[in-house]
Amino acid sequence: MTNSHAARDIDTSRPHSARMYDYYMGGKDHFEIDRQAGEAAAAVYPGIFVCARENRGFMHRATRVLAQEHGIRQWLDIGTGIPTEPNLHQVAQSVVADARVVYADNDPLVLKYAERLMRSTAEGRTAYIEADVNDPQSLLDSPELGEVLDMKQPVALSLNALMHFVPDDRDPYGIVSRLLEVLPSGSALALSHCTPDFDAPTWQKLADLYNGAGTPVQFRSHAEVTRFFDGLELLDPGVVTAHRWRPETEPTATDAEISLWTGVGIKP
């Protein structure tokens, strides 16, 4: 990461999905245009705030399960977003101090705050790569990836609330397959994805808002989300709404309020 990269102008002329997510999470690293867009989205789908929180909770639980029960010590987190503590490496390193995490995103604002993602334990290591999931090969070719992660050992690929920003014309399944094919046996995919399954008209309005603001989205059905796990061994309870994936307390929200499919699969 260089100062020239960090100094890049941040486009505040239109809302950005990462900054809108920060607004949903109650953060402060967004601009007025993002707040306005977030409020417009919330007017259509009031559950967007709890959906964002449950997405974060799923990431925490999936990370702990992979570290505690499956021996994962390495993560590649793409579409990192603006840092919100505890970040993935903090969760992983709270279980295994020597965990290594590479974060990847292509938003200048995320890059600006990337130093928050570098506060690793002495035993572990973290790195930030400026990369776009739509160009998986450039990410895989990044020198930082090989410097931090041992690609001969299992790696957890974390794609949280990301792939609904990759429409079908950008080959989302091919992208995920390309990322997984270079990972060895025992690696994992942890993925969350918004869905219109419980209220199609509302989610169509939400898609229209994002698309109209210049952020392409494609929300997918349970079957379409499950397809991302083809060839993997799904962990129980399979692909379920976020608050039902190994919850630590009894869920109180409805599936429709969450509208986010989640799952974790292990590569044989």
From the 3D coordinates, which CATH architecture would you assign?
3-Layer(aba) Sandwich
Described by the principal axes of the CA atoms, the overall outline is: globular
Counting copies of identical and different chains, the oligomeric state is: single chain
Strand content: 5-15%
Q: How many helical stretches?
A: 12
CATH-defined fold name: Rossmann fold
- Rg value: 17 Å
Strands, total number: 8
> How far do the termini sit from each other?
35 Å
Q: Given this structure, which CATH class is correct? A: Alpha Beta
Structural class: alpha/beta
Number of structural units classed as domains: 1
Poorly predicted runs are 1-8
Helix content: 25-40%
Whole-number average pLDDT? Answer: 90
What can be said about the biggest beta sheet? Answer: 8 strands, mixed
Give a verbal description of the structure.
- This protein has 268 residues and is α/β, with parallel strands linked by helices.
- 39% of the residues lie in helices and 15% in strands.
- The chain is built from 12 helices and 8 strands.
- Strands 1, 2, 3, 4, 5, 6, 7 and 8 form an 8-stranded mixed sheet that branches.
- α4 runs parallel beside α5 (88-95).
